[in-house]
């Protein structure tokens, strides 16, 4: 049998795969950016116990946690147009590209997961901090922005980092609906050249580099936010 | 002037405050005494709306509100006229000593940052923390944290300051210094309600002493009356334990 | 688009039929992850020399590897090398006799070990150092203190994050269909290959998953209330 | 449903047709080394498009299952991914009438194996297949008729060719179901000059592959069928097959 | 008997203990006084190996160890001869009051569970918590937690008990009760080192008072000597602040 792994093929693959990194990054940036906003809104509804919205978000978060992303992607890719087009007379079914639906899926998914992380972080800050804010005359919003938020960021950072690393990997699902990212590119190189291992190994290296960079960055951010505590690993 | 009337508060079935009323004249210092669990902390918290009272009225200066039905705006108004010193300090963990002290000035009172820093530094100097401006709370000893909390309240120059055991973490030297500070502030005409176990403080600076037990005001009067001539059996009993303790080392 | 309920129902039954495989793919890695994860977390928190650094590097790097790829590589290695290894060890078993669900379980276990060790490490770090000191001060040894004081407190603290990872594991278990193990998703889409009703198959799988996670989350809540009865507010 | 309607570019009279095909199934539909769509399906469709001036094809790729769901959801008008016909599928989709590839499948085993000649020899043995392929359908039907000692079906999705060869060589699987041309392709790519695999016995099944359309879209179906027929007659289809797959697999093998 | 010799300990550049030696006879009570940050807590922690001293020797009964080079076995031996009452209680959060008290007996001393429970209940009754056997720490008030910590130390019946501010969270009534308990225990011949800010306690039960400042023992002697006739200027200064405070309300 032919050699399973060849360095030549490995290096030939690099320029073929690298350009698709931008697709992966775009998904991650959209999902994180809008996901954070959505998560903030969900947490607000939870904390304020807003009627209707709060129970609705509970079911929504449970669904996003409880079902495979693949299915979420399908339901959004095929289900959303089926719901919206007949009502508004639009044709987003064909009008929106596959990648748009991928963005929507990842934003909705991240919103749910990040809301769980943020909620956990906020509720773990001693309530005395809020009370102290009130006692010096800050409004609720001021207390949140100036006292709770900075402390929350520190607590939420490590799980947020794990989540982000996972997001990079999950984004490879989009190949199923025809959006080519680095992982999809590796797969298609496999199909075209009959050798997939080298491409996969290179993609794994990219993922590991990204993951280490994120951890390092977050570790650095964390040390900035220690507020005088002794560093924990 | 601060006046609290007919405050009631229950946690579940436990009636923690059963119709408590307290009245304090401008610039007066009231000390609240009482055994553990008698509702002292809860009373202070109700006054600052950190706890929702079941009923009662509150008047500070010319602001008059119902403790149960106050609007958000009224609550903010009351809170900006008062300051609170917490038993467990509750310093902002993400801010240095100086930032803790100026937070209320800058964000709630909209005083320019420069001016606020100047006042904040004065307040910290005043409580003996001139060298700790830029330390975070977790790097301060318990006593130092407590003093930051006190400075944070004083710097606001509010009409009323509520103290919840402000000297529990301090060694005797610092207790003395803190009480000196409180005395000075009383001289400035700020009204104060102080929950404390320090009898010497009650004797020294209080205009009035209130003795609470099981959610009611058992007895109130001038320090002399309460300490030398308590009318109620429960007060007498509480004080006798303390006095027998302390009399040992009156040199 | 038309949703064929008959096909959905058939897929649903197929998914349920292969549910036990998913259970194996989730609970065996979970058990391994809990055991090794706890050991790794303890070694890192209590700073066992050398080991704590090595484990830290391993966990951080391995978390960067997508499970699909790891799985594919293990499977290739398994198919290529198992017979040689078995021959070397004088074991009669051939690769063909080994159910390759074990390759899946192996891959998922490694992932579980890493993520669970992180969850437990976080919980351990949140326990006050005074608890260890109190243990030592009444004469307990280090091991006794960890076993009797630290671990019981770690459990309720770790459960929320742990459940996130268990839910992740449940979903990750579906990637093993790439190496030919039938679990819920692969099972639910078996009829789909005949009828070409794939959407119905996926939705059927999702329903089973969702019900399963809701059950797990409920169990976790009960477990947390029970193990955390010494805490003031077992809910948050 | 109303989803399957074509979008019309009214002024030119040319209708846009969205064609869905796969992205990782060489040599039929895959992305080439540049990342562009390539393969037999693509070449045939391009030729069909040329013959149909009233239509203009546009291509969209996804994986095997999603191509069909997209068709169902009205995202595409035509699905091409070596789809084989059966009754149940016919209920759900509109199949073309004109096959464009034959699909004669055999049992494939390692080159040195002589014990397997027919499905009956596979009782209790392990066979690799993948969900969505017609071979699964054949094997399941066989098991339905012979419930006593069924063939063990290993459903392997998204497997690479490397895995298939390795698994068979190492005895993880006893056999798989392949066309002759796929077997040759595997030998070429991974045999290192030897025939590691061979087909054995009589064909397991002979079928053909068709383009698939949305249920009510007979107009497009008829037009495409007509074009395919023309391509067959002109010999163009056979030529494409030879160029892309390496042999004429359009009529018989 | 416990003897600590030449203990030195630095945190980073800060020399927190600079050659401290303390000697206590069997059944004696030593009170350690000193301002905040003087190294009192650090000294106790070094004795119990909760902090690694940089140098020093320790002898308890017939066990003699080097504070820096002690083996694991020696450390365990010392810890089983001593008990520690923490300033912030440090009760086992996952165990009830009773379980907290018997943990050391059952797991470290291998006393049968039945017998341990009997002794544990006695100890809790003794500190006035007869009704709280099965409460978890988070459901106890600060004062109650502190008393569980004291019972947990007493029940081990160790040769030496180390107290770090054992009455800081108690109201004056409870302080009195706790000091009574400590006095009773002293009567049983257990050696005790007590860090405290309660002067009355020092006067009442101490056989010896040690005054520390900035990591050194400034002065030591009988309570009478230290309080009535301090030799060092620093001691005099520290005490004067306190006495001026307390003399106010000797009735
Ligand atoms: N959030 C709460 N939920 C339930 N009960 C509470 C709550 N807060 C206080 N209590 C109860 O109310 C009673 C009064 O508490 P409070 O804190 O006002 O006492 P205190 O007089 O300040 O005592 P201490 O001197 O110990 O601080 C206590 O019995 C306490 O258990
Ligand atoms: N872990 C540590 N790291 C760095 N410095 C420390 C640490 N622990 C104590 N210190 C410093 O050592 C000095 C002595 O601390 P120690 O706790 O022994 O004081 P103390 O006499 O008990 O004071 P207090 O009466 O406030 O409890 C203090 O200045 C403190 O800041
Ligand atoms: Mg209180
Ligand atoms: Mg101390």
From TrEMBL, chain A:
Gene Ontology annotations of biological process type: amino acid transport
One GO cellular component term: ATP-binding cassette (ABC) transporter complex
Protein keywords: Amino-acid transport, Cell membrane, Membrane, Transmembrane, Transmembrane helix, Transport
Compartments in which it is found: Cell membrane
Principal location: membrane
Residue intervals of the ABC transmembrane type-1 domain: 21-218
Protein name: Amino acid ABC transporter permease
Organism: Lacrimispora celerecrescens
UniProtKB/TrEMBL annotation, chains B, E:
GO molecular function, one term: ABC-type amino acid transporter activity
InterPro entries, sorted: AAA+_ATPase (IPR003593), ABC_ATPase_HisP-typ (IPR030679), ABC_transporter-like_ATP-bd (IPR003439), ABC_transporter-like_CS (IPR017871), MetN_ABC_transporter-like (IPR050086), P-loop_NTPase (IPR027417)
SUPFAM superfamilies: P-loop containing nucleoside triphosphate hydrolases
First-listed, main subcellular location of the protein, grouped into a coarse class: membrane
PROSITE patterns for the chain: ABC_TRANSPORTER_1, ABC_TRANSPORTER_2
Record's bilayer topology term: Peripheral membrane protein
One Pfam family from the record: ABC_tran
Official protein name in the record: Amino acid ABC transporter ATP-binding protein
Species this chain originates from: Lacrimispora celerecrescens
Upper taxonomic lineage: Bacteria, Bacillati, Bacillota, Clostridia, Lachnospirales
TrEMBL record, chain C:
Gene3D superfamilies hit by this protein: MetI-like
Classification via InterPro entries: ArtM/GltK/GlnP/TcyL/YhdX-like, MetI-like, MetI-like_sf
Keyword annotations from UniProtKB, A to Z: Amino-acid transport, Membrane, Transmembrane, Transmembrane helix, Transport
GO BP annotations listed: amino acid transport; transmembrane transport
Superkingdom, natural source: Bacteria
Major subcellular location class: membrane
GO CC, alphabetical: plasma membrane
Membrane topology: Multi-pass membrane protein
Pfam families: BPD_transp_1
UniProt-annotated location(s): Cell membrane; Membrane
Domain ABC transmembrane type-1 intervals: 19-220
Membrane-spanning intervals of the chain: 23-43, 55-80, 100-120, 169-190, 202-223
Family, as annotated: Belongs to the binding-protein-dependent transport system permease family.
Protein name per its UniProtKB record: Amino acid ABC transporter permease
Organism, as annotated: Lacrimispora celerecrescens
